[in-house]
Design brief:
The complex is a heterodimer.
Chain A (H helix, E strand, L loop, with lengths): L17 E3 L2 E5 L6 E5 L2 E7 L5 E8 L7 E4 L5 E2 L2 E7 L6 E8 L2 E2 L4 E2 L13 E3 L17 E3 L22 E4 L1 H5 L12 H6 L1 H7 L3 E4 L3 E3 L23 E7 L12 H14 L3 E6 L16 H9 L23 H18 L3 E4 L18 H8 L7 E4 L19 E4 L1 H12 L5 H8 L3 H4 L7 E4 L8 H4 L35 H20 L3 E5 L27 H5 L1 H16 L13 E2 L4 E2 L1 E4 L14 E7 L6 E7 L5 E4 L8 E7 L15 E2 L5 E4 L3 E8 L10
Parallel strand pairs in A: 14-15, 14-23, 15-18, 18-19, 19-20, 20-21, 21-22, 22-23
Antiparallel strand pairs in A: 1-2, 2-8, 3-4, 4-8, 5-6, 5-9, 7-8, 9-13, 10-11, 12-13, 16-17, 24-25, 26-27, 27-28, 28-33, 29-32, 30-31, 30-33
Helix pairs in contact in A: 6-7, 8-9, 12-14
Chain B lengths: L2 E8 L2 E10 L4 H13 L4 E11 L1 H17 L3 E4 L3 H9 L7 E2 H15 L1
Parallel strand pairs in B: 2-3, 3-4, 4-5
Antiparallel strand pairs in B: 1-2
Classes of the chains: A alpha+beta, B alpha/beta.
Protein name (chain B): Anti-sigma factor antagonist
InterPro entries (chain B): Anti-sigma_ant, STAS_dom, STAS_dom_sf
Family (chain B): Belongs to the anti-sigma-factor antagonist family.
């Protein structure tokens, strides 16, 4: 006999006890916060420490005026939590918010205003910005409307993948920008569904983790600027201005107009996991879209300003984020809020990890001073639900706190290694005096992460915030005029070099040099110890025309141009080959920093440094050539990487290999394609075993083995 | 907007023809119509040709029917899924669970071809 699971269990709390404003209600449960569907109704729970009264405001979906305003009876308050179950609501067709009444006294931190309808900080869906770029009706009193949603997605057997951190190859991308370009040829350009259609491309590229720029609900239309040349509206394209921390951005979903963005995003994650690709979210807990004293009141400001924001003794907003306000992250209530939020994304969206924007702020005390033992960072490190997620800090903030290498890690936190970026860029352009630091960086930055291992270092050369790889080798200076800030925005210290002409050129020599420099960068990145991160499009020479701060450019400056996949097939092939090479060589992914210890079976140290002469590295200021040999525990895991940033060729003497092994050529960026890179495992044995001529500004990668096809170290 | 449902029975199973919108207001009655059919244990076809919109709650109802049918070992096929509904079902992953009439027809065609 087949049972059915649709029969309802009788529950005492399925019955109303009170009537408020014509609606049948009962006291709700304080936990969990937010709006939760319960038998017969919806339970609403919201925190405010200083509110004198709280009113639940309910709208029929899309209507400008409320259909009900239900004040919480006094007996529905537990501590500082207001909780009420309302019966008979069609949860799919309502929007809700709160009016919180209380003192308006900015000097003491309170900004209550009962005229405002406030978004629920725990809203799992937000309506109001359902389709990207649609001009909102600003005459409406309540812009960002909280919605109720069921958390019943059918995940099948999907779980977070748990790829060891040291094996990750991270690909940083933007949901909209990845497929918005007309050349993407996807069904729904610029959406989660569109990105899902590109999974085969990501898989073929070889990456196993995507890091998405913010996907929490934000308002792309909150940027008041226009392009000074074209007069076009500029958007908040990147989205580092969160409106709602629990809700996926509706405008990133092809089904956002139906309120199904949650399911669409989960389906993307499920399919990425099925393809062996983890998902890391870039999260922004350092500030919110409410700005400073002049900014809008959306949620926190009206619910409990003094709890959620760091305030000066005079009641003004501390601005360690550079954007107006600073979230009071180490307040006990806010710590729990951040924790609840991240748990939600892990438990309900199967997210594999997080990259924390301006994470140094998360280590500041309530008055803004840096804490030696920040409780929030510790809490996140040890939380049972987050226990196996990746936690990556952008270990600096706009208030001048720079903690690269010093971020309180609790054995868990990794960091964007800004020093890696700066050093390798500087070396690539040929600066003097860099070779010594280059060695430290490519060995996993033991000076910064001695006790934390190499996987604490997320190595990158480019990210959304700065030049693309193609622009790094095409521009000496930033060209941000289109942002409407007189080129004053964006970083000035880029360590970039245009190879002889500023911007696009027809000069074949310059273009060849640029291609080589990009290959050099990729070759160094993927043979360095630490977690490599690639900016989406760098594998096909994506350009932003020299703009190094495209936060507001929702156009071809930012979008991935899929025609470049064919146009720059040579670079794409090279990138794929380098990622594949990394997967073949465990020694490049070792979590332990090398010590120079000799691997007895080969008689070679785990790491050794070389120059033109084997075993004789040149650490002098004028040296622009460094070679590193890594020797693993496998019989054939010997990798030699020579990096020549000099404008002249050099004759390399190669270190001798023991026991009949010989050097085989994997890559030489100075060689014409397709001879620039080989298939891992099918490297070509060198004719002259002891020597190799490295060309100007080139990287050469060799592997030492007995036979080209024997015993690969395949992960 | 209402939803009308009609049953048609034949030797190979039951066809339920739905007309209107499947949303949170109408999905309860759809579920009540479908669950007894699932319990009968015969193949079930749901004809959505005249369904103009399926909301989030509607998709969940269809998935509940699918899970009940899976538990009972009954095959459920969706027919006549409009382009818009198909797009929403595809983008949100619901389509992955169902066999659709079109796919079944194509498979049958392929089989015939292979037999020749």
């Amino acid at each position: 006999m087949t049972e059915t699971r649709s029969e309802q269990v009788l529950r005492v709390d399925a019955y109303p006890t009170h009537e408020v404003g014509g609606y049948r209600v009962r006291a709700g449960k304080p936990f969990p916060f937010g709006a939760n569907v319960v038998p017969g109704g919806v339970s609403f729970s919201v925190f405010s420490d200083q509110a004198t009264s709280m009113t639940l405001v309910i709208f029929k979906r899309g209507e400008p005026e409320p259909m009900a305003e239900l004040e919480f009876p006094e007996e529905f308050r537990t501590g500082s939590v207001f909780a009420m179950t309302v019966f008979g609501l069609d949860h799919e067709n309502i929007e809700y918010g709160y009016r919180a009444d209380g003192p308006y006294d900015p000097v003491t931190g309170h900004r209550f205003d009962a005229r405002q309808v406030l978004s629920d900080p725990y809203a799992r869906l937000i309506a109001g910005r359902d389709v990207w770029g649609v001009e909102p009706d600003r005459s409406r009193g309540y812009q960002y409307r909280s919605r109720v949603c069921l958390q019943d997605f059918d995940w099948g057997d999907d779980t977070p993948l748990g790829i060891p951190a040291e094996d990750l190859v991270v690909y940083e991308t933007h949901v909209r920008g990845f497929t918005r370009h007309p050349s993407s040829q996807v069904t729904a350009p610029g959406t989660f569904a569109g990105l899902r259609e590109k999974i085969p491309y990501l898989k073929e590229l070889g990456i196993n983790c995507i890091e998405l720029l913010p996907v929490f609900e934000f308002d792309e239309s909150d940027n008041p600027r226009t392009n000074p040349e074209t007069g076009e509206q500029l958007f908040d394209y990147w989205g580092y201005n969160t409106v709602s921390f629990f809700a996926p951005k509706a405008g990133y979903a092809a089904t956002g107009r139906y309120g199904m963005q949650g399911d669409e995003f989960r389906t993307l994650i499920k399919d990425l996991h099925a393809a062996g690709i983890e998902v890391i979210l870039d999260v922004v807990f350092n500030h919110t879209a409410e700005g400073n004293e002049q900014g809008p009141t959306i949620s926190f400001k009206g619910l409990d300003n003094a709890t959620y924001y760091m305030l000066t003794p005079e009641g003004y907003y501390f601005n360690f984020s550079g954007t107006g306000n600073t979230v009071n992250c180490n307040h006990p209530v806010v710590r729990n809020y951040v924790l609840d939020c991240l748990r939600h994304w892990v438990a309900d969206y199967h997210i594999d990890g997080f990259r924390f924007d301006l994470a140094a702020i998360l280590g500041r005390a309530l008055d803004g001073t840096p804490l030696p033992n920040p409780p929030l960072l510790e809490l996140l490190a040890y939380d049972p639900v987050l226990r196996h997620t990746k936690l990556i800090a952008e270990a600096w903030d706009a208030g001048g706190l720079y903690e690269v290498g010093n971020f309180p890690a609790y054995g868990r936190w990794a960091e964007w290694n800004g020093k890696y970026r700066d050093t390798v860029r500087s070396f690539l352009k040929g600066d003097p005096g860099v070779t010594g630091e280059l060695a430290t960086r490519i060995a996993g930055s033991p000076d910064l992460y001695a006790t934390r291992g190499t996987a604490a270092s997320v190595n990158f050369l480019t990210a959304h915030d700065g030049f693309t790889l193609a622009d790094l080798v095409s521009y000496n200076d930033k060209h941000n005029e289109a942002n409407g800030e007189n080129n004053n925005d964006g970083a000035n210290d880029n360590n970039s070099w245009n190879c002889g002409a500023e911007g696009p050129t027809d000069d074949p020599e310059i273009n060849a040099l640029r291609t080589r420099q990009m290959k050099n960068a990729l070759a160094i990145l993927f043979t360095s110890q630490g977690i490599p991160m690639l900016l989406a499009g760098d594998e096909v020479a994506r350009t932003q025309q020299g703009n190094n701060n495209t936060y507001c450019q929702d156009n071809e400056l930012s979008w991935f141009d899929w025609d470049q996949v064919d146009d720059n097939a040579e670079l794409l092939r090279f990138t794929r080959g380098m990622i594949e090479f990394r997967k073949h060589h465990r020694e490049l992914r070792s979590t332990a920093h090398p010590t120079g210890q000799v691997r007895e079976h080969l008689g070679l140290p785990d790491i050794s440094w070389h120059g033109e002469r084997a075993w004789q590295p040149d650490w002098s200021a004028e040296s622009r050539l460094l070679a590193v040999a890594r020797c693993g525990t496998g019989d054939d895991d010997v990798v030699y990487v020579a990096m020549n940033a000099h404008w002249e060729s050099h004759d390399l003497e190669l270190p001798a290999l023991p026991g009949g092994r010989s050097w085989h050529l994997f890559a030489d960026t100075g060689a014409e394609a397709p001879y620039d890179i080989r298939t891992p495992g099918a490297e070509q044995e060198l004719d002259n075993a002891g020597k190799y001529l490295i060309g100007p500004r080139s990287v050469v990668i060799l592997v030492g083995r007995a036979n080209a096809s024997d015993d690969l170290d395949t992960p | 907007m209402t939803l009308n449902v009609k049953e048609r029975r034949n030797k190979t199973g039951t066809v339920l023809v739905a007309t209107g919108e499947i949303n949170s207001e109408t999905s309860g009655s759809l579920l009540q119509a479908l669950l007894p059919l699932v319990r009968e244990g015969k193949p079930l076809k749901i004809d959505l040709t005249a369904v103009t919109y399926v909301s989030s709650a509607g998709l969940r109802t269809l998935l509940v029917v699918y899970r009940e049918a899976q538990h009972a070992g009954v095959a459920v096929t969706l027919y006549g899924v409009s382009e818009e509904v198909r797009f929403v079902m595809s983008a949100t992953g619901f389509l992955d669970f169902f066999e659709t009439g079109e796919a079944v027809a194509a498979a049958a065609k392929a089989k015939v071809k292979a037999a020749r």
